[in-house]
Specification:
With 74 residues, this protein is α+β, with helices and mostly antiparallel strands. Helix content is 32%, strand content 16%. Strands 1-3-2 form a three-stranded antiparallel β-sheet, with no helix packed on it. It is globular and about 35 Å long. The termini are far apart.
């Protein structure tokens, strides 16, 4: 079912690969878990990508998570 996992891949505009540790740290402090796409590539991708999992969350928590992520990316 849907609780098994749904994921969204997000490419960060203007970001040319590499880890953005400060964003991961800020997101984690805000309670938002992020995963880099880097482990899924043999060579690092040209852009920074994030994998977001959201299946078991109600819509209100997804919206709050997006707000927290937006604050972390500023």
């Amino acid at each position: 079912g849907a609780n098994a996992g749904l994921h969204l891949l997000v490419w960060l505009k203007g970001s040319r690969g590499g880890m953005i540790a400060d964003v991961y740290g800020k997101a984690e402090k805000a309670g938002v878990g992020l995963y880099s796409v880097k482990p899924f590539y043999i060579r690092p991708p040209k852009r920074t990508g994030l994998v977001l999992g959201y299946a078991p969350l109600p819509e209100s928590e997804i919206r709050e998570g997006i707000r927290c992520l937006a604050a972390a990316l500023k």
